Amino acid sequence: MAELKAQVHYGENDFFIGISPGGHASIMETNGERASAATPMELLLLAVGGCMASDVVDILRKKRQRVTDYKVEVTGDRREDFPRSFKSIKLHHILTGESLSEVAVKQAIELSDSKYCSVSATLRPTAEISVTYEIVPASVAA
Questions:
Q1: If the chain, 142 residues long, is cut into consecutive pieces of 10 residues, what is the mean pLDDT of each piece?
Q2: According to the model, what pLDDT value does residue 142 have?
Q3: Residue 72: which of 35, 36, 22, 117 has the closest Cα?
Q4: N or C terminus of the chain: which is more exposed, having fewer CB within 10 Å?
């Protein structure tokens, strides 16, 4: 079993410093009114988007697809009552590339969503996760 150990240090005034197992620091705030740093729930949205995006790029690379631009728009809908966990998360993948195969893109996203993305697998028992995608031709994106 692969154990990971992170640390979170209190930095006063509703700020915390997270240290990843690899030693990388991230600043978090718990008072979302300031908007000076990401909240833990915002970081969770970034984590699921980053997890899926890295899977998709890796799978498309193995399929010899050339991605020139890629972003994932992640939207989360939280419960009103406590704990205010996500009840649904939507990921919209927007890819650009020379002659990207729609079949390859669809397969890559489905594989990430159903098999490889550890973050979505962790969230899925309590949040409904849906994915959509669009391919923007390189000539339109330029």
A1: 93 94 95 82 97 98 96 98 97 95 98 97 96 89 58
A2: 56
A3: 117
A4: N
Q: What is the 3-state secondary structure (H, E, C) of the chain?
A: CCCCCCEEEECCCCEEEEECCCCCEEEEECCCCCCCCECHHHHHHHHHHHHHHHHHHHHHHHCCCCEEEEEEEEEEEECCCCCCCEEEEEEEEEEEECCCCHHHHHHHHHHHHHHHCHHHHHHCCCCEEEEEEEEEEHHHHC
Tokens found for residue 109: 């996203």
| 35: amino acid identity, one letter | A
Q: Domains in the chain, please, with CATH? A: 1-38 (no CATH), 40-141 (3.30.300.20)
Residue 1: what pLDDT?
A: 66
The total of other beta-carbon atoms located within 10 Å of residue 101's CB is 15
Answer whether 0.85 is exceeded by the pTM: yes
Pair 48, 118: CB distance under 8 Å: no
What pairing do the DSSP bridges indicate for beta strands 86-97 and 67-78?
A: antiparallel
- Nearest alpha carbon to residue 136 among 107, 109, 101, 97: 97
> Cα–Cα distance between 75 and 123 in angstroms, integer?
14
